[in-house]
Amino acid sequence: MSQVSETSVKALLRQHWAIETTSLQVLKAVPVRHGPQFTAGLHAAERLERSGIRAGAPVPGVDGTLLASQGDLVAALLTWVPGEPLSGDTTADQCSMAMTLQAEQLSTMLQFRWAVQADYFARRLFDRDMTGIETMVENEKGLADAQRALGDF
Hints:
- The protein has helices at 6-17, 35-50, 91-127, 137-151; strands at 25-31, 68-70, 73-79.
- With 153 residues, it is mainly alpha-helical.
- Strands 1-3-2 form a three-stranded antiparallel sheet, with helices on both faces.
- Helix 3 (91-127) packs antiparallel against helix 4.
- The mean pLDDT is 84.
């Protein structure tokens, strides 16, 4: 893996995020080959932050992207989360991790539920299926409700 100089890090921060300092942020870099897993983790942190759990969400670059390339590395600027990092070695750490994952899982399951409902009502509208209802307005309302709920995620 290549070494990245302080000068090149500062240039990357200036070019991709238009910032001169990393106060209250953390620059994390991984080898390019780990980019897909890194990106998945960044998106998970975004979802956790949206649900109210401080997870060090990535700071989008000036172009809106989350990753910047530097040699054989990809980097992301993360929001700083104060406190001690969790190691998973203590019962308290494990409980905190489990509660965080459970909160994200419930959010994911709810999002999946609304996606299934949107599909269900879209199919009923397409097929003009009025089983159990009097007008197509009820199917339209079900689809609109699902779309609105998905927009909240």
